[in-house]
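Recap from last week: sequence in, structure out.
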Amino acid sequence: MQHIPTSPFVSSNERMIDPFGRAVTYLRVSVTDRCDFRCTYCMAENMTFLPKKDLLTLEELDRICSAFIRKGVRKLRLTGGEPLMRKNIMHLVRDLSRHLHSGALEELTLTTNGSQLHRFAQELADCGVRRINVSLDTLDAAKFREVTRWGDLAKVLNGIDAAQKAGLDIKINTVALKNFNEFEIGDMIEWAHGNGMDLTLIETMPMGEIDFDRTDQYLPLSKLRADLSKRFTMEDISYRTGGPARYVTVAETGRRLGFITPLTHNFCESCNRVRLTCTGMLYMCLGQNDDADLRKAVRESESDIPLYAAIDEAISRKPKGHDFIIDRDHNRPAVARHMSLTGG
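Predicted C-alpha cells:
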C-alpha cells in the first residue's frame, strides 16, 4: 500500500498530553526483537522470535515515527533487541535524520549492546546521531560471556572505541545484579569516567520469563549507592536527558553517574515517553499491559488520519505509573512480554 502523507501537519496546540497533564515528547522504538546476546536478566537462552510478517517494515516504522514527531515528539530512541541487527537499519536512520535537518526532531539516538558498533559508528555519526547508550554489565571477559551467554567483550570494547573515534558521545548502561557485578561497579565507574563516558546504573526489571529467579538477581540501587558513597563523593544534580535516570556528579572523576530505580523509587511522576514495539503495538507504560495497535492503523489506510486518531486514543489511556514489584511473593514477571520486544 502506498502511503499518501496527510496535510496539514498537526499543529502545536494538538500536542500529546496524557490524563495527568504530562506532555509526551519522547518515543522509544524497538526495531527488532532479535538480539545476538541472550543476557540472563533479559531473555531465556532458547528464544522464539517473531516471524518477519509480524514486524513493521522500515517504511512503516518511518511513517509512525514521523507521525509522532508531527504530534510533538522531540526525542526518538531506536532500541531492540539489538537495533543494529535489523536488516538495512541504516536506511531507517537516514530517513529519520531528515527530521533532525528540519529541526522538528531534537535528537535521534539508540541503545545498543555494542557488538555491531564497529560496523556502523561512522555512518550513525554521519546521519546526525550525536550520542548513544551502550549496555555493558562487566569488564571481566569471562563474566561478560556468562551474563550475555554469547557475547564477546573485546568486540564490544572495539565498538566503543570506533564510536568515540567517530565523535559519538557514549553513556554506559549497567544493570546492577546481586552476586554478579555489585562489587565491580566502583571500578566500572572509574573506567567509564576515565574514558570520557558517563555511566548509568539500572535495577533489573520484572519483564518476561527467563531462566532465573529475579529475586536472586535484584540489587536495590539505594543499597548500592550507599556502598558507593564509601568510595566516591556524590552530589545530586538536576541534569536530565529526557529519560528516567536521576544523576549525581562524582567529585573524584568530575563526571555524571545516573540511577534508574523503577523498583526502589519509581520515576513515573514525570514520565514523558511511550514505547512502540517492532510489531506496531504502542505501550503507554513499560510496566503495564495496556496497548494500542498502530500497525492496523497504518496498514488499513493510506491516510495518516486514522493513525493520529489511534495515537490520541492511546495517549488518553496512559496510566499514572507502573506496577513493578520484586520480592519473594512477586517473583513472576510483572508483564509477560520480554524487554527485547518492548524496547529497552
